[in-house]
From TrEMBL:
InterPro entries tied to this protein: ABC_transporter_ATP-binding, P-loop_NTPase
Descriptive protein name: Fluoroquinolones export ATP-binding protein
GO molecular function: ATP binding
UniProt KW keywords: ATP-binding, Nucleotide-binding, Transport
Taxonomic source organism: Bacillus paralicheniformis
Amino acid sequence: MRALINQPDLLFLDEPTSGLDPVHAKKLKQLILNKKAEGKTILITTHHMQTAEEICDRVAFIVDGRVALIDSPRALKVQKGKRHVKVEYRSRRQLETAQFDLDQIGSSPEFLNLIKEHPVETIHSQEASLEDIFIDVTGRRLS
């Protein structure tokens, strides 16, 4: 990248992974993370929420020229998510799904019984994705 030739302390990147295959996008993201670890400040514009989540300390959603929301990706996902856990498990060879409230899950007899009695395939918290947050904050909907 020519932008790195003079070793800048501040770097502006516009859609840095756009048009790259997954291997080269990963290499570029690692380069960005290395520069960040060196103490460089990097401002990125992107519509690719996974990229933002992987490399950004903070994200800002801009609506009509104004910052509508700004925080760390993790904080936003936790704040905007649901406090539930979704469990996929096998019962009589059928894939079943159950949902449990995250608060006090360790003392939930139903949850504890399920994980003792059935083979669990996946457990997922229900935090919001940055994509969901973007859609909510901007008021734009998928067509």
